[in-house]
């Protein structure tokens, strides 16, 4: 995947926000930083762009939830009616803000575009800044000192806050990339969550993905042995001595982030999804250079009742890419004006509309493309 640029991407990149360090390599995004489908019919009229812009202005409000040391902050967009579903968008790894952007060069605004698209279909969303980052800096003094379990606690707080704020009977967890792993772990704690929307979510353990991403590029040969040894240690719950580690790997395995990596490496997303009793949508773009189709199929195998939507010409940030060229794919990561690929909003909204009884797994109009 993006193993070719692993060293260049991470070396010296810690990430800064407002003069303080933010979580850059803390989540090494082995899943994010190594760097159209047919639409089912909808029973709701799509709003025009002008209507959508006006709706975004009229219906956008700020919302917060309690964190360990201060408030967690987010943005709610949509009608927020007691009769309409609410989707909590859980961001991917690294210093990713509520809109899906980060100071390391990703500016696709994926989560903002998701929120706007779903609002046009009368689905309210809440998109959030993670603990210790951006507007949620007060929630913890050290954004690197977190675990997946900490994020699960925060999602629990968000679900309670949304329910209290809106009274909505239907709350869905939408996890993007690493956020899908958090959603899987968080839902085990909440019986009142309707179901899961797993978008570009790994089906394999993070350590396994990182090994793959490092190994596929011959340019990583000089550091591969050391990197694989570090992954082995972290998977076994042991910290890694970085004294003699190659400088090219320090961004990935620096001591400050090893606690999180140990936590992340311990979770098996497919195992979390086994015997899951609620509706699940697995949405995967077939031009994704970070999470592959095999991951979506592993998740589908773990939950045969889940709905699998494979979207041709859709990449990791849910933009349309018609080329196999790496540069064309990555260029979309920095273009907030580029809309989401056709089929993305339709897949999510149609699934919610068909499954939003929170009691059954009635299949929506989307079907596995078989690609």
Automatic annotation (TrEMBL):
<dbReference type="InterPro" id="IPR029058">
    <property type="entry name" value="AB_hydrolase_fold"/>
</dbReference>
<dbReference type="GO" id="GO:0016787">
    <property type="term" value="F:hydrolase activity"/>
</dbReference>
<protein>
    <submittedName>
        <fullName>Alpha/beta hydrolase</fullName>
    </submittedName>
</protein>
<dbReference type="Pfam" id="PF12697">
    <property type="entry name" value="Abhydrolase_6"/>
</dbReference>
<feature type="domain" description="AB hydrolase-1">
    <location>
        <begin position="87"/>
        <end position="318"/>
    </location>
</feature>
<dbReference type="InterPro" id="IPR053145">
    <property type="entry name" value="AB_hydrolase_Est10"/>
</dbReference>
<keyword id="KW-0378">Hydrolase</keyword>
<dbReference type="InterPro" id="IPR000073">
    <property type="entry name" value="AB_hydrolase_1"/>
</dbReference>
């Amino acid at each position: 995947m993006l193993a070719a640029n692993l060293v260049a991407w991470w070396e010296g990149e810690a990430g800064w926000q407002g003069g303080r360090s933010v979580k850059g390599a803390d989540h090494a995004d082995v899943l994010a930083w190594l760097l159209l489908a047919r639409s089912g019919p909808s029973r709701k009229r799509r709003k025009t762009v002008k209507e959508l812009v006006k709706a975004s202005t009229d219906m956008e409000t700020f919302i917060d939830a309690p964190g360990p040391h201060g408030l967690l902050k987010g943005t709610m967009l949509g009608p927020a009616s007691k009769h309409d579903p609410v989707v909590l968008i859980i961001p991917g790894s690294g210093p990713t803000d509520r809109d899906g952007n980060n100071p390391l060069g990703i500016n696709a605004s994926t989560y903002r575009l998701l929120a706007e698209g779903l609002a046009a279909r009368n689905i309210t969303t809440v998109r959030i800044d993670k603990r210790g980052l951006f507007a949620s800096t007060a929630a913890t003094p050290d954004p690197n000192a977190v675990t997946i379990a900490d994020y699960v606690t925060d999602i629990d707080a968000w679900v309670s806050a949304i329910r209290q704020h809106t009274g909505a009977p239907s709350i869905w967890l939408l996890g993007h990339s690493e956020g899908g792993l958090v959603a899987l772990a968080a839902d085990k704690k909440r019986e009142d969550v309707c179901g899961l929307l797993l978008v570009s979510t790994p089906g394999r353990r993070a350590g396994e993905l990182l090994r793959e991403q490092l190994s596929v590029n011959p340019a990583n040969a000089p550091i591969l042995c050391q990197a694989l040894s570090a992954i082995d240690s972290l998977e076994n719950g042991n910290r890694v001595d970085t004294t003699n580690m190659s400088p090219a790997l320090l961004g990935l395995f620096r001591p400050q982030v090893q606690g999180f990596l140990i936590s992340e490496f311990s979770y098996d997303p497919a195992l979390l999804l086994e015997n899951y009793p609620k509706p699940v949508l697995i949405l995967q773009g077939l031009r994704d250079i970070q999470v592959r189709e095999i991951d979506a199929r592993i998740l589908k195998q773990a939950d045969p009742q889940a709905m699998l939507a494979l979207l041709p010409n859709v990449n990791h940030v849910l933009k349309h890419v018609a080329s196999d060229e790496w540069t064309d794919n990555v260029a979309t990561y920095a273009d907030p004006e580029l809309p989401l690929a056709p089929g993305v909003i339709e897949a999510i909204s149609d699934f919610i509309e068909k499954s939003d009884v929170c009691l059954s797994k009635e299949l929506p109009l989307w079907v596995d493309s078989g690609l």
